Structure formats: C-alpha cells, structure tokens
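A student in our group prepared the protein record below, which I am reviewing. I have pasted the whole thing underneath without changing anything:
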Amino acid sequence: MEGLRILIVDDEEELVSALVERLRLRGFQASGVVRGEDALSFLEEEECDVVLLDVKMPGLGGLEVIRRIKADHPGL
C-alpha cells in the first residue's frame, strides 16, 4: 500500500490539510484540493489510485465530479 497515490477533495481546507499530512506521514503520496473543479484539473495532470471525495461541496458537487471522473478516468 505504500506509495499509493491519493487525492483528497473537500471544501473544508483544514480537513484536507490534516488528512494529506497524516497520509504522507504513513508513506502515501497524498494531495488535496478544496473544489471539484480543481480535482478534475488535478487529474488531467497527475495520476491517482484513489480519490476521497466530499459529496456536498459548493460549486461543482461531488456527485458531478464522480460522474466526470468515471467518464474521463474509468480505471480510477
């Protein structure tokens, strides 16, 4: 599991920061963003193994982000 690439997506910046920090301390390659739009942009540039996604976010919500991820990155 070490080195697993994880993207955290949540509109609570402090939560994202805390989760990313804790995951990195455990050897994961963790990144975080606070908007659904940023998650999609991130995935265009970087590969991930897992996305941990908040469903209720302002702007582009989690359910729409999931739909787009499935369409553009079916193996994720």
